[in-house]
Amino acid sequence: MTVAADHTRGPVRSRRRRQALIAWMFALPFVLVFGAFMVVPLVSSFGMSFTDLSAKDIPNPLAVNFVGLDQYAQLFGDTRFLNALKVTGLFVVMGIPTTVAFALVLALALSSGITKFRSAFRVGFYAPVVTSIVAVSVVWRYLLQDDGLVNTALGWVGIDGPAWLSSTTWALPALTGMAVWRHVGTLMVIFIAGLQGIPDDVQEAAKVDGAGPFRRLWSITLPLLKPTILLGVVLISVSFLQFFEEAFVMTQGGPLDSTRSVAYYTYEKFGIGQYGLASAASYVLFAAIALFSLLQFRLLRSQD
Amino acid sequence: MTMTRHPSVAARPRTRRSMNPWKAVTYAVLVVGVVVWLLPFVWMLLGSVKTPGEVLQRPPTWWPHHFTLENFRTWLTELNFGQFFTNSMVVALVTVLGNILFCSMVGYALAKLEFRGKKILFGLVMVTLMVPGIVTFIPLFVIVSKLGLVNSYLALILPFLTQPIGVFLMRQFMSAIPDPLLEAARIDGAGELRIFFRIVLPLCGPPIATLGILTFLSSWNNFLWPLVAAQSEKMYTLPVALSLYSTGENATNYGLLLAGSVLIITPIVLLFVFLQRHFVQGIATTGLK
Known about the structure:
The structure holds two protein chains of two kinds.
Chain A: H1 10-48, H2 70-77, H3 79-110, H4 118-130, H5 133-143, H6 149-156, H7 171-196, H8 200-208, H9 213-241, H10 245-250, H11 262-271, H12 275-303
Helix pairs in contact in A: 2-12, 3-7, 3-9, 3-11, 4-7, 7-9, 8-9, 9-12, 11-12
Chain B: H1 2-11, H2 13-48, H3 52-55, H4 70-77, H5 81-112, H6 118-128, H7 133-146, H8 153-157, H9 164-175, H10 179-187, H11 192-203, H12 205-221, H13 224-229, H14 238-247, H15 254-274, H16 276-288
Helix pairs in contact in B: 2-15, 4-15, 5-9, 5-12, 6-9, 9-12, 12-16, 14-15
């Protein structure tokens, strides 16, 4: 370290050293806590996924057997895990585009020059974001009962609503609906900020050139907003891929595993003590999240 | 921006005429949307003051025929709400204070001090920004069990005491503080600790507010980890208590469950209404920087 620095003047070197020492003192509490409760678990989770660690090994965790890729092989041979992948995938594929569409409409509406009640609307649409998933899941379970408010309202327009949460067809779309409701506010705020970044003179120039409002939306606003949209998608996809709590409270993963996500599967395997298998499942999810983010950041960069 | 636009709109009646129907449609969409968006909350409030019979009545009643506070009374007296609330509050407040102090300290080192390993440390923070909780919670549980901390406040607090997002936020803000300001203080003989507490921290009001709110929010709503780490009823946080009641023998006692939801959501909504500027700022900065 100090080989090169030896030739420089002493005071400068000692001052640098002192500053480095002070810097590490500032970082110390974070480094300790973050190391013990984030870095170590992150690494050991990866390690665990190659072992047969189970709950009964806790007294002596180092005595477990290395089993190579067995846990991953077992995972991908388990139809319930494959089903969990499908459930999570469907949840993401249905949920994210819907959330983006709703948020985009709202952001455009709120940025269209209206001034009255603007912040009231914003607060209203944003409110679900700040609430506890467990609490709103309870509320939505009540709304979605066989004879709950949703089906009553559908009855007014002559639709005989399904038994949402006890139907293998409708349970997942119902939970997706709730997730959309909870995430629209986040994207709306991000999109509004993005829209503010689009210079007015570009819009004005297009107006002078005779472009109508839809033409301007399609050819100017949306292309310029693309990086913001992609960023928003990355942000909420992390949360969508971790789909668990809604199902835990509303359906317990049922009916017939139709809402059992990868995170839920992991939690369940953890619950019966199969730590190795559960870690492998969580790393599959982590890999999916990392890949998803990477892919989208690539897309993002190729825009510039 | 809007100031300069208004006169030109008034000067050109054509623009104004074509604006009005658009505005009407926009308002209609927004009003209908916001009513639908808030309906679950209204329904929750109304349901929480209905009797067990009325809350399951078909077709549902709008306004409660028999207004009752029995559900709230049950939470407060029979179900130990006070304990759950205290647990949630203690965990959230300590987590907030820890994050504000420790994240600003490391943020300062990363933004304003030179040291070996700085890039690695910051890289590590960035890499872990997106790590989902489900990935770390099994080893975390093993560690916490080994330390004998299961069922303690420490188990609920320690894993969240310093969050990478907080480091990122503080570091970004502190990088913008001009160096000459700190150099001047250094020449005057102030130590780094003094500079940090007397000069840097007082300038960091906005990111501290954002970090405090974000941390409080995620701690208050946190579920998976407390579900695993709090195994006896006296350590339950509010969401854990509600989820366990909602899947147990009370699964269809909706009046009670909705009252529980009201009790969890109300403190956050109050916080949100008073501090909404910071909430929105928090999302915008963490999302866009």
